[in-house]
Amino acid sequence: MPTSSKSTSAKTKVATPVAEAVSKVDTSKVPMATSTAPSVVEKLSPVVMSNELKKKELFDLVVARSGMKKKDVKPVVEAMLGVLGDVLAEQRELNLQPLGKLKVQRAKELPDGRALVLKLRQKSAQMKAASEDLISMPTKATS
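Predicted structure:
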């Protein structure tokens, strides 16, 4: 039967660090929290949870603005998004009023796709008209 040999190693003892006692903390210069009195809200304003526009919301906006049915709008918007994606992949400049002039500044190939840095130039009159359209557009009530 084979015999096993154990090697002995010298162990060194390390002193355990001891934390110093915490002295009294001076809180005289710390600002105190102020309590606010409740107020009555006169006008309700929508709370934006995210600025991201999803396709479903885009379909709803196009339906609301065009007055067409969603089943007619959806394939057109899908095709348009596909064309825009192809054009941006070719790094072509787009001049699509009232959206504005869109130009690819930089592109970087990534393992899972491509990152594009875009420059969008909009005329101020168009931005004003777009914001007025958003304000006057009816919103869908959720229950």
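Summary: The mean pLDDT is 79.
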